[in-house]
Specification:
By secondary structure, the protein is mainly alpha-helical. The protein has helices spanning 25-37, 49-61, 75-89, 102-106, 119-124. It is elongated.
């Protein structure tokens, strides 16, 4: 089902964009071809939280959901307020983290500082 542009609270369209493109099959075909040529494995299509959750939930089941970029100012706030709570209720999105660092959450140990002096060697001097 094709929907026109700007039908939801979080939707935004660049002033130079063709307003009728989103209702054209040829437009979507071209976008898919460009994404495939660029080796994109997932396209995030903007829309309201309620409409995007099923697509995001399906993407996580297929292990395709990775960090998606949010482009327009305010879009992140709308996403956090509308989509994240729904995904958390469904158990798809975390409600907390084990560590306070990105490394810790990935299970990667902190490497030794190669620029700091070796404290053992310094103590022996």
């Amino acid at each position: 089902m094709l929907h026109g542009v700007g039908i939801g609270r979080g939707d935004w369209r660049h002033p130079d964009a063709d307003a009728t493109a989103s209702t054209s099959f040829e437009y979507y075909k071209k976008q898919a071809q460009l994404a495939e040529a660029a080796k994109f494995d997932f396209l995030f299509v903007a829309g309201t939280g309620r409409r995007r959750v099923p697509a995001l939930a399906g993407a996580t089941r297929l292990r395709r959901l990775r960090g998606q970029r949010v482009a327009a100012q305010g879009t992140l706030e709308v996403f956090a307020e509308t989509v994240v709570p729904i995904l958390q209720k469904r158990g798809i999105y975390r409600t907390g983290y084990e560590s306070e660092t990105f490394r810790g959450n990935l299970g990667i140990p902190v490497p030794p500082n190669r620029y700091a002096r070796n404290t053992v060697a310094v103590a022996a001097e």
